[in-house]
Amino acid sequence: MQHGIRPLLKKLYFVRRVKHGTAIRIGETVPGRAMEMEDEDGTLARLLTLMDGTRTIDQIYEGWKREGAEETKQDLEDIIVELDELGLLDDASAAERSGLDSIDQERYKANLHYFSLYSRIGSSVFEMQEKLLRARITVIGAGTLGSGVLFNLACLGVGTVRIVDFDTVERSNLNRQMLYNEADLGKRKTEAAAEFLRRFHSRLKVEAIDMRIMSAESAKQAIAGSDAVVLAADQPHVHLERWVNQACCALNIPFITGGVHISEAQFYTVIPGFTGCIACNDLIQNKLDASRQSFLHDVLESGFRLPSTAIAAHYMLLIGAI
Q: Are the C-beta atoms of 69 and 52 separated by less than 8 Å?
């Protein structure tokens, strides 16, 4: 086992002895993570107490022996491996090797606690946060869904966000588009959104591109160099998501898209080479419904555009799901 590790029982997990029993229960404070372990003489409970992140494995073993444990050093290492596989342990020394400075560690403290649901001794919460800080995410559309996504990306600690939009802030946007206020009326959305995000998070790198995507080629220009794309716009209707799909598949960039349709919401992810894409779905849906293509053609030819029925509460639920 790697030298210098300081095993830490994750702070999420409460440990208690079963009343009048020979077992301990761990993790009843975390939904779906509770487990019970036999511990007739209290040896395991004492060991977990020693795993407070201040001791190396050698120091834990010495303390455990002083408290009466008869197990060998190899037994201890085997127990640590098992507890780690169960997702109960972190390595406290990872904080000292992290590229996160004290400001970032404080700002993202709750993020790090959340990531500990998925961390292991060899895969720390700090590495997860650092991966976000290195990421560049492009959000196409800074309207209702896009503004919410941008705000949440800034909260998560994504290092660079790119905003792509062509519109201006209108009064009718203010019932649901959280990045804007009355002083922004008439401003380009890319400008107003960038100003808000820079005020909210001074370390966030914001790239603003004021453009309207009108082809797969212009979509490629908008997303080039991104690690992931969120498509949060729907105009030109029908065409836009297919242009972005084509561009992302060509550049091997995963993307998420979705939206609210009156009282329904949907979202989905396309990972080139691993999932189907919008073109794949079109092939399937056209086979299932022979009238689908003529319906889409008639809608586009008529110029019909469904009026916005968006309210903030619906989009907050969708953004949380994304």
A: no
How far is Cα 317 from Cα 302, in angstroms, rounded to an integer?
Answer: 32
Radius of gyration in angstroms for the set of CA atoms belonging to the chain, rounded to a whole number: 25
Residues 258-295 as b/e (b if ≥16 CB within 10 A, e otherwise) read bbbeeeebebeebbeeeeebbeeeeeeeeeeeeeeeee
CA 150 from centroid of its chain's CA atoms? 12
pLDDT tens for each residue of the chain, 322 residues long: 666 899 999 999 999 998 778 899 999 999 999 999 999 989 999 999 999 999 999 999 999 999 988 999 999 999 999 999 999 999 999 999 999 999 999 999 999 999 999 999 999 999 999 999 999 999 999 999 999 999 999 999 999 999 999 999 999 999 999 999 999 999 999 999 999 999 999 999 999 999 999 999 999 999 999 999 999 998 898 899 999 999 999 999 999 998 777 777 788 899 999 999 999 988 998 889 888 888 878 877 887 877 777 777 777 777 766 6
For the residues of 24-90, what is the DSSP string, one character each? EEE-TTSTT--EEEE-TTSHHHHHHHH-BSS--HHHHHHHHHHTT----HHHHHHHHHHHHHTT-EE
- Rounded-to-integer distance, Cα 61 and Cα 75, Å: 10
C-beta separation of 137 from 226 below 8 A? yes
Q: How far apart are CA 123 and CA 127, in angstroms?
A: 7
* Residues 6 or more apart in contact with residue 48 via CB below 8 angstroms: 9, 15, 24, 26
**7 closest CA partner among 76, 68, 67:** 76
Instruction: Please provide the distance, in angstroms rounded to a whole number, between the alpha carbons at the two ends of the chain.
Output: 38
Residue type, 131: K
Residue type, 146: G
